[in-house]
Amino acid sequence: MILPAPSEITPESVYLARRRFLRQGAALAAAFPLGLRAATAAADCAQADVPGLLPGERPNSFEEITSYNNFYEYSTEKTAIKHLAVNLNPRPWQLRIEGEVAKPVTLDIDAIAAPARQVERIYRLRCVEGWSMVIPWQGAPLCELLSAVQPTSRAKYVRFVTLHDPERFYGQRRSSLPWPYTEALRIDEAMHPLVLLATGLYGKPLPNQNGAPVRLVVPWKYGYKSSKSLVLIRLEEKQPPTTWSQIAPSEYGFYGNVNPEVPHPRWTQSREVRIGELKKRETLPFNGYAEQVAHLYRGLDPTKHT
């Protein structure tokens, strides 16, 4: 693996900043017409106060992040993905946003990844298998794009659909999962300012093996909720079926919130292995983002609504 030169990596101080204001209202209006209320929501989203790193935490290296991946469209072998994904060809690419919206739109990937639209966020990623990373992402806050298409009052859920192309995705030639890979959030979850449509990491375009050219990042949920290589976002009135909750409902619920007190049927979730470290860490409720998101789940039983 050839690492980027130090001059090509965004300085660490940039990533440790708690707030990033890389967008301005005028740039947003020029790139994507918005009504006044949608523009206000987008501005609030861009100015979200993002939690910093925990004491003793550091971002994983570029090599670690790009060498150990879950990407079932290619394979279940995590270290093989970087080799298999060389055929992805993430340009040209379009993302469609439709359904219960007033202004459906098809966006070119370069519009989503435009510098005026990008923010930089360091998030922990916790996978259900028990490993974790800390990743410096670049991307567009999802709430900005959803505000722009003006959801209707019937929009209660947001479905995310990845590319279905067995010619490119070797794993899709098998019927191990119902393709295309599909995930979903409640709309209030999707509109939370921490949710990111990631288009890059470490100051570079998103590598193929990490879900190029655009993937979902929901930092308080297990990694299976963060769909890769997205082509469709659809707002819907009823809760849509999702890939893992269809094939293994006893193991993977709709919510997928990180909860160390609820074990997976086949292993504990109370501890995790941070890639690059030797000893295990205690897993934090909501992956350490409880202060920001726990209020979304008041009244729900966390042992049943998993």
Architecture overview:
Helix content is 19%, strand content 21%. It is α+β, with helices and mostly antiparallel strands and 306 residues long. The protein has a single domain (6-255), classed as Alpha-Beta Complex (Sulfite Oxidase, Chain A, domain 2), CATH 3.90.420.10. The strands form 2 sheets. Strands 3, 4, 7, 8, 9, 11 and 12 form a 7-stranded mixed β-sheet that branches. It is globular. Residues 1-41 have low confidence and may be disordered.
Outline of the structure:
The chain is of the alpha+beta class. The chain has helices at 12-16, 25-31, 36-46, 62-67, 81-84, 109-112, 142-149, 187-190, 243-247, 290-293, and strands spanning 94-99, 105-108, 119-126, 131-141, 157-162, 182-186, 196-201, 204-205, 215-217, 230-236, 271-274, 280-282. It has a single domain (6-255), classed as Alpha-Beta Complex (Sulfite Oxidase, Chain A, domain 2), CATH 3.90.420.10.
Topology of this structure?
Blueprint (H helix, E strand, L loop, with lengths): L11 H5 L8 H7 L4 H11 L15 H6 L13 H4 L9 E6 L5 E4 H4 L6 E8 L4 E11 H8 L7 E6 L19 E5 H4 L5 E6 L2 E2 L9 E3 L12 E7 L6 H5 L23 E4 L5 E3 L7 H4 L13
Helix pairs in contact: 3-7
Q: Give the averaged pLDDT, no decimals.
A: 87
| Approximate strand percentage | 15-25%
**CATH fold field value:** Sulfite Oxidase, Chain A, domain 2
CATH class membership: Alpha Beta
Task: Give the name of the CATH superfamily.
Answer: Oxidoreductase, molybdopterin-binding domain
CATH architecture: Alpha-Beta Complex
Distinct helical segment count: 10
Q: How many angstroms does the end-to-end distance come to? A: 37 Å
How much helical structure, as a percent, in the residues?
A: 10-25%
Mind telling me the C-alpha Rg? 18 Å
Total discrete domains: 1
Could you spell the SSE succession in H and E letters? Answer: HHHHHEEHEEHEEHEEEEHEEH
| Major sheet attributes | 7 strands, mixed
The 3D shape can be described as globular
> In terms of structural class, how would the helical and strand content be classed?
alpha+beta
Task: List low-confidence stretches.
Answer: 1-41
Extended strand count: 12
